Amino acid sequence: MNIFVGNLAPETDETELTNLFKAFGQVKSVQVMRELFSGASKGFGFVEMPGRAHSLSAIAALDGKDLHGQPLRVNEAVARSSGGMRHR
């Protein structure tokens, strides 16, 4: 399942998100979206977990959790009709 993670602090990286989600099961991939030229975080990313049950547990536990002074927005990502992913 693909999971949208929003409201990320600029210092949040892929390793930190991997460790956060690993507590709920296997993490297949993590991507923090970044500006093309500056490399700065856009404040959101995606985590892919292979198990639906583990994914739903992670969403329930981490949505609203404080990370670097900001409450995370965590929900299921769904495919856009134009390609790419979006959140619900």
From TrEMBL:
Q: Where is the signal peptide?
A: none
| SUPFAM superfamilies xrefs | RNA-binding domain, RBD
Domain RRM residue range list: 1-79
Concerning InterPro entries, the annotation shows:
Nucleotide-bd_a/b_plait_sf, RBD_domain_sf, RRM_dom
Q: What protein name is recorded for this chain?
A: RNA-binding protein
From which organism does this entry originate?
Answer: Candidatus Accumulibacter contiguus
